[in-house]
Amino acid sequence: MKHIAFSLLQPALLLLAGCNANSEYSSEPCRFVYDNSIHLNAALASAMVPESRGVFCKITESSWGGVKYLNFQTNNGQQTDPERETEPEKQADFILGVNNGIIVGFQTMNQQPYGGFVAYDVQCPNCMRRENNHLNPKFAVSMSQNGIATCSKCSKKYDMNNGGIVQNGEEGDTGLLKYVASTTGPYGVVSVHSR
C-alpha cells in the first residue's frame, strides 16, 4: 500500500521540484526578444558567444524625438551606436526589467541551464527592497571588466559570473534579479523573460 501511495505522489513531487527550480528566476516584468541577424550588433554578439564567457552586454531602451532606440554596452567597454527599433520591435513593447535595463552573457561558472547563458536586471535588488520602491526604482548597477556589477548607491557587489550572487551582502540580502534567458548564437536571437 505504501508503494502505491508513493507512486501516486511521485508526479506531484516532481511538479513541486520543477516549480522550485524556477524560483531562481524573477517574476518582475521583463520581455525582450531580439533578432541580431537583422541588426548585426557587435556588442550584443560578443556576449552571445559561449567561447567568450565573462563578456556581458547591458541593454537599455531610450527615446529621442519620439523614436525608440536600443543601446548596447559590454563590460569590456565596447559600445555601439543606438539601434533604432523596427516596427515589429516597437509593437512587441519591450519591458527591460525593473529599471529599463537587462544584462546578458555567458557566465564563467557553468551552473545555469543553456550552457551558462544568463540575464540579470540592472536594478540593485537590495536597494529596491530596502526602500520598498518597486514602482520607480533608480539604483542601477555598473559593470566591470572582471564580471562584477556594483550598485551606485549601496556599493554592493554582485558576481555575474556566478549566478549574480552578492559578494559583500548582509543578512537578508539577495543576488541580482535573474530572468529566463536563451540565445541561438551571436547573430541569432536572444530571448529574455520573467518566469
Structure characterization notes:
By secondary structure, this protein is α+β, with helices and mostly antiparallel strands. The chain has a single domain (25-193), classed as Rieske Iron-sulfur Protein (3-layer Sandwich), CATH 2.102.10.10. It is 22% helix and 29% strand. The protein has helices spanning 2-22, 36-39, 42-47, 87-92, 125-130, and strands at residues 31-35, 56-64, 67-74, 83-84, 102-106, 117-121, 141-143, 148-151, 157-159, 165-166, 178-183, 189-193. An eight-stranded antiparallel β-sheet has the order 1-12-11-6-5-2-3-4. A hairpin with a 4-residue loop joins strand 7 (141-143) and strand 8 (148-151). The longest helix has 21 residues, at 2-22. The chain is globular, with a radius of gyration of 18 Å. The model is unreliable at 1-21 (pLDDT under 50).
Topology of helices and strands:
Elements: H1 2-22, E1 31-35, H2 36-39, H3 42-47, E2 56-64, E3 67-74, E4 83-84, H4 87-92, E5 102-106, E6 117-121, H5 125-130, E7 141-143, E8 148-151, E9 157-159, E10 165-166, E11 178-183, E12 189-193
Antiparallel strand pairs: 1-12, 2-3, 2-5, 3-4, 5-6, 6-11, 7-8, 8-9, 9-10, 11-12
**Shape-level CATH architecture:** 3-layer Sandwich
Q: Helix and strand succession?
A: HEHHEEEHEEHEEEEEE
On the 0 to 100 scale, the average pLDDT is: 86
Helix content: 10-25%
Instruction: Based on Cα principal axes, name the global outline.
Output: globular
C-alpha end-to-end distance: 38 Å
For the biggest sheet, the summary is: 8 strands, antiparallel
> What is the alpha-carbon Rg in Å?
18 Å
Largest beta sheet: what is the strand line-up? 1-12-11-6-5-2-3-4
According to CATH, the fold-level topology is Rieske Iron-sulfur Protein
SS field, number of helical segments: 5
Strand composition percent: 25-35%
How many strand units? 12
Parts with pLDDT < 50 across at least 5 consecutive residues: 1-21
What's the number of structural domains?
Answer: 1
CATH structural class: Mainly Beta
Name the CATH superfamily classification.
Rieske [2Fe-2S] iron-sulphur domain
Return the structural class: alpha+beta
